């Protein structure tokens, strides 16, 4: 890649848009995301469907009944659904408990979260931002979390579920869909080479590193100073191969620029680096060095 010497920074209002998955059973996956997660079905056309919280799509599904799960490759670690507040996270968590669906509530201090897999093994995080509860930082290769009282925490403690569920009020319905303010907060990817991934997402696309640890094999990058819009890790192995075309899982995820001018600016930079985007109705589709699909789109479309 030939890059200019002037540091390039992506627009601070850039966000993650929808996540597009290949699934083997579209009916089963639609039912899962409606019943277990609380998404609404926005549309369905043949072997494709779009779901979300009533506004723009947050999840796109394309059915391929021949597709199978392939382990040990690059691709999706999880996508993270950001709830607008702790009460809505409590509702989502209570829904999962009421349905006895396995999930793993975790306290990251500056976020409260739970992790689960969908019906076909795709990783999902449900979380709410809680920056008032503390901060995390990296010093060298060390990851540190400090709560609001100044106590050093692991950042991976079990979540105090009982305290969170007290956010619910009498009469709150667990079958209520997720609120419209729900978004995709971040996407976490398996990559083959951490330094190479950082060069692509930071040096080329302009995200900024919020924390990186070679010892952990992980990097967290974002636009506008958010804790992370993208997590990158080598946890399935350095040099991991990309999945075959008929694998279940990630087709692409969407990076949404605030307007067409910013999308054009970034697309021109990508082309100057000798990458050839695939122009689609939704935006410019490119692939990172680990062959993860990245759709560059405009929020003004």
Question: Can you describe this structure?
Answer:
With 301 residues, this protein is an alpha+beta fold. It has one domain (15-298): Roll (2,3-Dihydroxybiphenyl 1,2-Dioxygenase, domain 1), CATH 3.10.180. The protein has helices at residues 26-37, 86-98, 161-165, 194-204, 260-272, and strands at residues 15-23, 40-45, 48-52, 57-63, 75-82, 104-107, 111-117, 123-129, 134-139, 142-147, 152-153, 157-158, 183-190, 208-213, 218-222, 230-233, 249-257, 278-279, 284-287, 293-298. The strands form three sheets. A nine-stranded mixed sheet has the order 12-6-7-8-5-13-16-15-14, covered by helices on one side. It has an eight-stranded mixed sheet with strand order 2-3-4-1-17-20-19-18.
């Amino acid at each position: 890649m030939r890059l200019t010497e002037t540091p390039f920074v992506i627009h601070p209002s850039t966000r993650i848009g929808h996540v597009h998955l290949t699934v083997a059973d579209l009916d089963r996956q639609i039912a899962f995301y409606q019943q277990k997660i609380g998404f609404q079905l926005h549309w369905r056309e043949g072997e494709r469907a779009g779901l979300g919280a009533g506004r723009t799509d947050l999840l796109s599904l394309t059915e391929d009944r021949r597709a199978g799960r392939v382990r040990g490759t690059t691709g999706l670690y999880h996508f993270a659904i950001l709830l607008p507040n702790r009460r809505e996270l409590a509702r989502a968590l209570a829904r999962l408990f009421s349905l006895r669906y396995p999930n793993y509530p975790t306290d990251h201090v500056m976020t409260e979260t739970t992790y689960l897999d969908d019906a076909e093994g795709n990783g999902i995080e449900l979380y709410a931002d809680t920056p008032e509860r503390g901060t995390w930082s990296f010093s060298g290769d060390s990851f540190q979390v400090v709560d609001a009282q100044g106590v050093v925490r692991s950042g991976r403690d079990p979540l105090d579920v009982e305290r969170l569920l007290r956010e619910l009020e009498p009469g709150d319905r667990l079958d209520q869909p997720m609120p419209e303010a729900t978004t995709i907060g971040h996407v976490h990817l398996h990559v083959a080479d951490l330094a190479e991934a950082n060069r692509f997402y930071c040096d080329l696309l302009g995200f900024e590193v919020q924390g990186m640890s070679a010892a952990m094999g992980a990097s967290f990058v974002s636009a506008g100073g958010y804790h992370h819009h993208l997590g990158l890790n080598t946890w399935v192995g350095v040099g991991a191969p990309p999945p075959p075309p008929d694998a279940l899982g990630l087709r692409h995820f969407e990076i949404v620029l605030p307007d067409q001018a910013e999308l054009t600016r970034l697309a021109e930079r990508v082309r100057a680096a000798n990458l050839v985007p695939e122009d689609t109705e939704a935006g410019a589709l490119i692939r990172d060095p680990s062959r993860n699909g990245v759709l560059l789109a405009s929020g003004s479309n």
